[in-house]
Amino acid sequence: VSRPQEQEPDARDLSVDRDYFQEQVWPRLARRVPAFESLRPRGAWAGFYDQNVFDGSAVLGPHPRLENLFVAAGFSGRGLQHAPAAGRALAELLLRGRFLSLDLRRLGWARLSAGEPLREAAR
Description:
Elements: H1 18-32, E1 59-62, E2 70-73, H2 79-96, H3 110-114
Antiparallel strand pairs: 1-2
């Protein structure tokens, strides 16, 4: 349940809006999954979301202008899932000078520099 854009809180305010959750989100959860009716959250948190706003895909590899800077960022909430593969890919790049296990060049900076977003078919 997302608010209309004009009702979104200031992104710098990381307080949790418990009323919105209780009044808007919880009733919809309980209707969809009746077991939620008897459950109640114990805590909540808010934080920033790492997202590559250019195309929503990760940026992985050496920076095009800053020597010896390698980046693994912008996983858009999938960082934990992709961390083992991204770590291995960066290790291969650092130690061998290229990707060995998977060719992940398409996640590099070239697409950003060329203005060519990487689009996922499943989105």
